[in-house]
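Deliverable D4.2, example record:
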Amino acid sequence: MLHADFPVACGAGKPAVTSHALALSAAHRAGTVRVTAPSGVTWAVTVGRDGPAEIPPA
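Output generated by the structure prediction step:
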């Protein structure tokens, strides 16, 4: 199980646009995304999957 947090500070009335990417060796498996925010905050989230990540040799 992967736990990743991406806190985003935002001000009232100011849209915050940000993006994050994770290269995961098990990205082909099913997963869940959860977004939490205080009441009164509106979120829009897009989650996608690209081709297999290239893992650099050790």
